[in-house]
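// run 5 | inverse folding | seed 20
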């Protein structure tokens, strides 16, 4: 029996995300990270890109083309800036290659998937990501975690839950965002929502509720003008500066006044890592190079871009990523959440996290399928007419 090109592409995709979920849930969550596993899963990404490109040779790759090109140009610019700064300030070039590689394969693999599969097939792939992510989460937490005592100990206000997971919060909200838009299967949509509640990252939980009820109040298919998207990207850059300024030691009193908490506790120790980098006398030496100073990432991606690649690098990455969401309101809301996550946390370098994000953006802006028309059956709403801003 002859195996089709598409089945091989599906197998590569499935195996890569299985290794990612299995590795996070079984190894990394328990303090282990076999190098062979890391090589295997990223190697599968590269294989998926090469095979997908080869198997669709001769076809017109038009879906999500300009967004992919824009991000690749941005990453090339970041690479050049990083190499220049590394030479000037004696940075570690290997870190630069590693970081840029992660960013590039995420957008390239999403691009190949978007141009190799139909929307219906992509829906199945996203279902698979959610299933293996839930399996990985169960490996991390183990099934005996489901007790009444654990459920009763959950506290949203104290950000306390035995079910919380830093490893599967991203795949849970990424899948939820996709299935909250394509509400074809009510069961799948509800499971994606419940998975976000279980992984229990408060911003993600709030965002999941926003996605659930947003169609009641707004037309999530509203087309937004590029001028407004531009202003949103500019606001994101300015917000990064404000957040950075607030985290400086001399301004900690403002954080306490605004939140009633210290900066260190409010940021879960991230501000302390930032201060360690600043006190070390670190000079911008390219993406990923601050790790050499404190031997850990800052875990605030946009601030890290600013420190490591200067204001130029920050502007380039923010504008490229925000415009990759397209001009549909729902996708821009999803990107706003991602930028907020990158401002206060980390994960921008996580290729496995960003592949489903880019796929979601591509599907919303480019792919049409009568079997997956957005009707929001969970809320039983009728679609509104599209407008332009």
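// decoded
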């Amino acid at each position: 029996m002859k195996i089709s090109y598409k089945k091989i592409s599906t197998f590569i995709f499935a195996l890569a995300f299985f290794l990612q979920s299995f590795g996070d849930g079984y190894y990394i969550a328990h303090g282990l990270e076999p190098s062979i596993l890391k090589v295997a899963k990223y190697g599968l990404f590269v294989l998926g890109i090469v095979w997908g490109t080869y198997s669709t040779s001769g076809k017109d790759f038009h879906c999500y083309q300009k967004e992919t090109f824009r991000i690749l140009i941005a990453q090339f610019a970041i690479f050049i800036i990083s190499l220049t700064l590394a030479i000037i300030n004696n940075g570690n070039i290997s870190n630069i290659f590693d970081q840029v590689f992660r960013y590039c394969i995420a957008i390239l693999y999403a691009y190949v998937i978007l141009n190799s599969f139909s929307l219906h097939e992509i829906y199945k792939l996203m279902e698979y990501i959610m299933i293996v992510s839930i399996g990985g989460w169960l490996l991390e937490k183990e099934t005996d975690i489901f007790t009444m005592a654990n459920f009763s100990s959950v506290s949203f206000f104290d950000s306390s839950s035995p079910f919380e997971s830093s490893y599967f919060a991203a795949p849970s909200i990424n899948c939820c965002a996709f299935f909250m838009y394509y509400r074809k299967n009510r069961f799948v949509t509800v499971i994606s929502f419940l998975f976000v509640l279980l992984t229990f990252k408060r911003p993600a939980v709030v965002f999941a509720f926003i996605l659930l009820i947003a169609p009641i109040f707004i037309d999530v298919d509203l087309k937004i003008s590029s001028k407004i998207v531009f202003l949103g990207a500019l606001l994101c850059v300015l917000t990064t500066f404000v957040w950075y300024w607030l985290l400086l030691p001399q301004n900690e009193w403002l954080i306490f006044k605004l939140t009633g908490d210290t900066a260190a506790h409010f940021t879960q120790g991230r501000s302390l890592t930032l201060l360690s980098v600043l006190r070390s006398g670190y000079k911008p030496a390219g993406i990923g190079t601050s790790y050499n100073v404190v031997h850990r990432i800052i875990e605030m991606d946009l601030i890290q871009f600013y420190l490591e690649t200067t204001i130029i690098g920050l502007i380039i990455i923010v504008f490229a990523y925000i415009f990759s969401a397209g001009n549909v309101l729902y996708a821009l809301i999803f990107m706003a959440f991602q930028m907020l996550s990158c401002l206060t946390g980390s994960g921008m370098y996580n290729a496995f996290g960003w592949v489903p994000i880019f796929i979601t953006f591509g599907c919303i802006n480019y792919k049409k399928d009568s079997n997956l028309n957005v009707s929001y059956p969970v809320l039983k709403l009728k679609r509104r007419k599209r407008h332009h801003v």
